[in-house]
Design a protein that fits this description.
The protein is of the alpha/beta class. The protein folds into 2 domains: 110 residues, Urease, subunit C, domain 1, CATH 2.30.40; 301 residues, Metal-dependent hydrolases (TIM Barrel, Alpha-Beta Barrel). It has 14 helices and 16 strands. The protein has an 8-stranded parallel β-sheet. The chain binds zinc ion (ZN).
Amino acid sequence: MVDLLITDTVLSKDGRQMDVGVSSGKIAFISPSGEGISEAVHVVHAKGGLLLPGLVEPHIHLEKAYLLDVMDRDADSLQDAIQITAKLKSSFTDEDIYERSLAVIRQAVSNGVTHMRCHAEVDPILGLKAMESALHLKQTLRHQLDLQVVAFPQEGVFRSPGTEELMEEALRMGADVVGGITYQDECLEDHLDFAFGLAEKYGKPLDFHTDFSDNPNDRAIADIARRTLITGMQGQVSAGHVTSLGSLPEHEAMDIAELLHRAGISVITLPMTDLFLNGRGDAEGPRRGLAPVKLLQECSVNVAIGVNNIRNAFTPFGKADPLEVAWLLAVTSYMGGERDALALIRMLTYNAAQALGIENYGMKVGAPADMVLFRERSERDVLLDKPETRMVWKSGVQVQQYGSKAIEWLRKSQAMDIIGTRVKGMKLWRNS
Ligand SMILES: [Zn+2]
């Protein structure tokens, strides 16, 4: 007898139907349909639907999501978006930050996200408000989502006096990751000295916003990689955007990609923001301004996909759905084949888990039962359909049961236990 049995599900593209049993929050067995334990407290008949490990959101901003209604104009560049948001930030209250952050998490969980890394802004405007809110959500929602919190100096460390001390305090409070933003300080060396120094002092991984442009001369990522090798932090450093790499001649981009591979740096591509803000300086034939995902893959660099922003000056789109962003990347990076679909889904799952240093992740016996089940039968169909109906479990407990149409209702509700209820004897898709 197991707690949960999912029957006739498909785990990979070979299409073989399997049963998955869950006990005490962990995957207890995976066996060909009908060959394992058949008694369970809860049974879900998947009818050939694809079961993936929980989606991993590797790069998101909670406290500055959903700002469209309070913006007095739209941004026309990255620096403009930073300025518009900086102005709004001074009016953020604790309650406001918390409410909007919670709305993002609820939507993400509903979409199948079981792990998330958020960048909480730490600067003299917000002080530690965003950090406090994120750490509180990490604790209170721990049964629905594993949340990693990055101390992120959005306004720059040295050009925004007081940030050094606030960053240090954020680490003392419990930040999981040291953040950096190479394009916000004048001296790259000083910025990297600070970030790597703080990471070493507190024994934390690093996550940079870097080379967010289409200027081929922006190559801070190469300096980050060299520092990573020198400090022995291979496998503990991630970098978001890295779009200028896409403007380099191929052989030069290859050299940097090989350096990234050696340094074990994960690149987190953020297509919704990158496509929206880059390429604007090109009077004719604007570039797409994306990280060169295929080239990075060829050089065995770990690539993951992030949502980044939701409905604000940086990205006036989005619904915290990793599949939506993966689909956008597929369309704009010439990734339309079946192998591409498999690679893209991997970027939302195993690759993102590697970037975040998540241990014991995935569909294997003994791993936490963090899973998302689709009615679709293959990765490619999931990517193409971006279906609303998804069944999501965190440690074997169902955390979503209504599909994302219920999001508005979830957002309006204050009851924290709406996500996290167990449904007895539920059968999936009875009519199909
Ligand atoms: Zn970001």
